[in-house]
Amino acid sequence: MSWLATKLFLKKAVVWAKNHWKILALAAYTLVLYLVFSKKARNAKKILEITKQSHKAQVDAINKSHAEVLKKRDENLKKYQEIMRQLEQEHAERREAISSDKKKRVKQIVEDSGDDPQKLAEMLKDTFGFEINND
User: Fold this and answer.
1) Which of 51, 80, 119, 135 gets the highest tally of CB atoms within 10 A of its CB?
2) DSSP 8-state class, residue 114
3) How confident is the model at residue 94 (pLDDT cuts 50, 70, 90)?
4) What is the dihedral of CA 107, 108, 109, 112, to 10 degrees?
5) What tens digit of pLDDT does each residue of 23-62 get?
6) CA-CA distance, 85 to 77, in Å (whole number)?
7) Which residue has the higher pLDDT, 83 or 54?
8) Contact assessment for residue 120 and residue 109, using Cβ atoms and an 8 Å cutoff
9) Domain boundaries, the chain
10) Structural contact between residues 123 and 109, judged by C-beta atoms closer than 8 angstroms
11) Which region holds residue 116: left if phi is over 0, alpha if psi is between -120 and 50, else beta?
12) What span, in angstroms and rounded, lies between the C-alpha atoms of 38 and 50?
C-alpha cells in the first residue's frame, strides 16, 4: 500500500505543480540566487573589512607625515628666529663699532684741519662723501 500511496501523492504533486508552477519557479530562482550570491556576500564583507583597514592605515600614514612636516617646520622656524637674532645682534655690534670708528675719524679730521673751515669741509667731503655749505 505504501507504493500506491506514494504513486497517488506524486500524481497530485505533479498536478499541483502544473497549476502553481510560478510559485515553484520563484522558489527555485530564490534558491539559486542565494547559492550564487552567498559566497560573494561573504567575500564582499571581507573586502569591505580589508578596505576599512587599508583606509585607516593610509589616514594614519598621512597624519604621521603631517605631524613630521609640522615638527620640521617648527624646528626650521626656531632656527630662523635664532639666526635672525644673532644677525641682528652682530649688526648692532658692527654698527656701534663703525659709529665709533667714524667718530674717531671725524675727531682726527677736525684736529688735522685746525681752524681752517675750508680744509675741514674738503677733508669731510673726501672721507665721507658729503659737502658742507658755508652760506
Assistant:
1) 119
2) T
3) confident
4) 130
5) 999 999 998 888 777 777 677 778 888 889 998 999 999 9
6) 12
7) 54
8) yes
9) 21-128
10) yes
11) beta
12) 19
Q: Which H helix or E strand runs over 103?
A: helix 21-113
Amino acid residing at 25: A
- 124 with 132: CB under 8 angstroms? yes
Best CA proximity match to 43, nearest among 32, 31, 51: 51
Alpha carbon distance, N-terminus to C-terminus of the chain: 151
Compute the Cα dihedral for 114, 119, 121, 122 and give only its sign: negative
Distance, CA of 71 to CA of 100 (rounded, Å): 44
110 touches 120 (CB < 8 A): yes
Q: Could you tell me which residues come within 8 angstroms of residue 134 by beta carbon, excluding any fewer than 6 positions away?
A: 117, 118, 121
Is the confidence at residue 135, as pLDDT, over 70?
no
Cell matching residue 52: 576599512
Instruction: Look up residue 81 and give its three cell numbers.
Output: 628666529
